[in-house]
Write a structure and sequence with these properties.
By secondary structure, the chain is an alpha/beta fold. The chain is 32% helix and 16% strand. The chain has helices at 19-29, 36-39, 72-85, 110-113, 153-166, 201-216, 229-238, 263-280, 307-310, 325-342, 377-389; strands at residues 7-11, 89-99, 102-106, 122-128, 175-176, 179-185, 221-225, 242-244, 260-262, 285-286, 289-290, 319-321, 350-353, 367-368, 374-375.
């Protein structure tokens, strides 16, 4: 089912059918959740050469621009598409935790995935330390309330119980070093205070391993998703087995000075950083290959305002321009070479951001072009490179 260095793509659940998401959206914005497959089609260009809107297809057909991942036929079509082009599996964004002492689970499309004919398609879960956005599109400077989970042992236990009860024993679940793989996206950027009983992310990682072994006699392989090595050091010391990344292509700290950034230039910068990061940590660094980045479809520019008025504020973080399959393929090749040099064979894999982040400009999914043709160039590049080099 797996080769020496498999390719796994992050999978962002696209659905409005989740009852918990609906309730949160109604409470916070007064409306039902926005369908992101429609939202991306309504995006407007904000400056010259800004490529918006974009229309995607879940199955490679020009007739499939709107869908819901909760539908089995939709999930099966994506599994088949991944297998056709050489994507070995998905790492699902997974939203399970505890808020105000109550268990919360949202947009769980993984169990629907398991009802499909998986064949050789592998999967794993990326546990996100907060809920997905329920209010879209987003006004500038709007911070949605109640997105983050309690930083408590109960949240950790809820995550572990969910994984152990539903996924770790599945034969298609990704294992590294014969241990179930879990990546941890610590999206909660608030400062914490030990005086309030909150745990640091490092303490949560340490407890996740301890609780998992105590209750299930399972030691998961934990990959911490961090932007910089300095952020990961505490996580690695607490028990994380490796460091990896997600949509880490733009220079986010230069959002105001450089609101528009070039794809090729950013790839060059990130690849140069890989060796620096690996030198700073004593465990493997598994860099992500990123399709692009443009979260502007998730935002609303107020009437009478322009891109210059909102740049640097989510979702108007840096917009990556000139993304293309050729440069993507170069980044993919360089990632493969990097892990060959630096990572033990049994821990090698390639994460791609992402399969379907269609409202953040990072999607392997084919695009439906204005003339009705379908652009599958990113997926085709993966297939070409695998056929040529065998990875």
């Amino acid at each position: 089912m797996k080769n020496e260095s498999p390719i796994y793509s992050y999978y962002y659940p696209l659905t409005t059918s989740c009852n918990t998401l609906q309730q949160r959206s109604l409470a916070n914005g007064g409306t039902m959740p926005t369908d992101e497959t429609i939202l991306c089609q309504k995006a407007k260009p904000l400056f010259v050469s800004h490529r918006q809107p974009n229309i995607y297809s879940f199955n490679g057909s020009s007739e499939s621009s709107i869908w819901d991942d909760m539908e089995p036929r939709v999930m099966q079509a994506q599994i088949d598409l991944a297998q056709q082009y050489g994507v070995d599996g998905f790492i699902f964004d997974t939203y399970v935790g505890v808020k105000n002492g109550k268990i919360s689970k949202e947009k769980d499309v993984v169990n629907g995935f398991l009802k499909c004919n998986l064949g050789r398609t592998a999967y794993a879960c990326m546990m996100v330390f907060g809920s997905p956005r329920s209010v879209l599109p987003v006004l500038p400077y709007f911070e949605e309330p109640d997105r983050y989970y309690d930083r408590t042992p109960q949240t950790v236990e809820t995550m572990v119980d969910y994984l152990a009860d539903n996924h770790w024993n599945n034969s298609n679940y990704i294992h590294i070093l014969d241990r179930p793989y879990v990546s941890l996206f610590t999206s909660d950027m608030r400062k914490y205070s030990s005086n309030t009983g909150e745990m640091s992310h490092a303490n949560m990682i340490n407890y996740l391993k301890e609780y998992s072994w105590r209750k299930y006699k399972i030691e998961p392989y934990l990959a911490t998703v961090c932007l910089k090595a300095t952020y990961a050091l505490d996580h690695l010391a607490a028990g994380a087995d490796s460091m990896t990344g997600y949509g880490f292509l733009p220079d986010f700290t230069e959002s105001i000075r450089r609101p528009i950034q070039d794809y090729r230039e950013q790839i060059t910068k990130r690849v140069e950083e890989w060796n620096v990061i690996q030198e700073q940590i004593d465990k493997p660094y598994i860099p992500p290959v990123v399709v692009g980045w443009d979260a502007s479809p998730r935002g609303i520019v107020p009437d009478g305002r322009y891109f210059r008025d909102v740049q640097g504020v989510y979702p108007f973080t840096p917009v990556i321009t000139n993304s293309n399959a050729l440069d993507f393929g170069d980044m993919l090749c360089q990632q493969k070479q990097f892990i060959m040099r630096n990572t033990p064979q049994e821990e090698r894999y390639t994460p791609i951001t992402a399969w379907n982040e269609i409202t953040e400009g990072a999607a392997l999914l084919p695009k439906i072009l204005p003339d009705g043709s379908v652009d599958d160039s990113y997926l085709l590049k993966i297939k070409e490179l695998r056929d040529e080099y065998g990875f």
